[in-house]
Amino acid sequence: TVGAVARDTSGNIAAATSTGGLTGKRFGRVGDTAVIGAGTLADIRTCAVSATGAGEFYIRTAAASAIAARMRFGGESLQVAADAVQAEIREMGGSGGVIAVAPDGTPAWSFNTPGMYRGRARADGTLEIGIY
Amino acid sequence: MTDWTLVIHGGSGAMSRDTISAEQDGVQRQALSRALQAGKAVLASSGSAVDAVEAAVAVLEDDPGFNAGHGAVFNAAGSIELDAAIMDGRTLEAGAVCGTTRTRNPVRLARAVMERSPHVLLQGSGADEFSRDSGLDQVENSYFETDERRMQLERMRERAAGSGDVFDIDVKFG
After folding, report:
1. Strand pairing category for B82-88 and A13-19
2. Taking each helix axis from N to C terminus, what angle separates A63-74 and A78-91, rounded to the nearest 10 degrees?
């Protein structure tokens, strides 16, 4: 799975995710990527999120929406909310991670599985690529 | 505040951490760098966040090193079904597709659903039909195949045959 989230100079945010799913999937299995609010979400009131990992856990927790709701109704920061949802998914036995950005441009990522590729760039010249 | 931010992920790439060589790691990082540059070019010229995420994801869909587009994993039948989604934070408009088989860049099909249809989610042959009607770049399903993914499918089939469990799918190959 690959994904991107962005905040532009007008202050808008967006998210996009794309995947082939699981090797050997059967019966038309669909994961979280195409389920808005699970693997992909953008809401100017809170954040933009793109997820990767064991899709069934991200669907059952409505992971992207849960991060946004923790921010909107719980007042948590983006990083705190992302870490909390990721920890919950880990407790359930799920693996994966999310990348996210807030309307003020604050980036965040939270993974609970090693081997995840990620990168970020900012107008201040930040350009970072790593593997979690 | 006038600045912009772009964050991308490549999932776990084509390989799992313990199987990737330094050379393969370098190739994957170069692909991520190209994706960052593509999105950055849009944002730095005051382009939209929606254009930026589409541009970055399309670069990774074209790269064989990631589980999306060219280089995606095989399903049990030995073909490739692709899912994608895109969303605009300000309007809350969204487009998503699942089980598509012929669109070179599924993220562009998701965007077409968002901008050229009253729907949010289209799936399977209907999504493929909408893609053709929308004039998006069409490819044979074999375009998405790579040797690495075919080997992963074969390994998974051998293990599933041994266990007899049709759902014996190892998330690691997701």
Report:
1. antiparallel
2. 130
A16-53 pLDDT, tens digit per residue, is 999 999 999 999 999 999 999 999 999 999 999 999 99
Which residues are bridge partners to B95 per DSSP?
B86
What backbone torsions phi and psi does residue A64 show, to the nearest 5 degrees? Answer: -60, -40
- Give the tens place of pLDDT for each residue, B75-108: 999 999 999 999 999 999 999 999 999 999 999 9
Q: Would you call B85 and A33 a contact, using CB atoms and an 8 Å cutoff?
A: yes
The candidate with the shortest Cα–Cα distance to A1, out of A57, A40, A46, A43, is: A40
- A-facing residues of B in 39-78 (CB < 8 A) are 39-40, 43-44, 46-50, 52-54, 56-57, 60-61, 66-69, 71-77
Q: Other CB atoms closer than 10 Å to residue B161's CB: what's the count?
A: 10
Structure tokens at A65: 């929406």
> Do A21 and B81 form a contact (C-beta atoms < 8 A)?
yes
Residue B87's contacts (CB-CB under 8 Å, 6 or more residues apart) are: A14, A15, A16, A36, A40, A41, A42, A48, B93, B94, B95, B114
Which is nearest to B115 in space by CA: B34, B21, B59, B48? B48
| Six-digit token string for B94 | 């969204």
Q: Please list every residue in chain B whose beta carbon sits closer than 8 Å to the beta carbon of residue A19.
A: 11, 67-68, 72, 82-84, 174
**Residue B169 pLDDT level (bands cut at 50, 70, 90):** low
pLDDT at B172 over 50: no
Lookup: tokens for B124: 């399977």
Ramachandran assignment for A51, one of left (phi > 0), alpha (psi -120 to 50 degrees), beta (any other): beta
Phi, psi of A96 (to 5 degrees): 145, -155
Helix (H), strand (E) counts: chain A: 3, 8
CA dihedral B12, A130, A18, B63 (to 10 degrees): -90
